[in-house]
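Table 4 source record.
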Amino acid sequence: MPSLRFSRVGLNLSLLQYLDFASIFISFIVLLFSLTVHEMAHAWTADRLGDPTARLLGRVSLNPIVHADPIGTVLVIGIIKHVYGFSSVRCN
């Protein structure tokens, strides 16, 4: 497997030829579906055990948007970008 190389312009994009975008897309859909079912199961279990908080927040749902926390989602993406160095902003 080729190594990542950084140049003055940024990440060397020669690795794009090794990416299979169809499998990445399918993996993303599977991950989104599994996380949604997982979080809905947490909410349903809490509701069945007597904690109405998740039901009152509308989280007993298969809608993935309901389970996305704006602050947590942005924070996790920001941390991943910071740790791994991926950024859509060009720094001089």
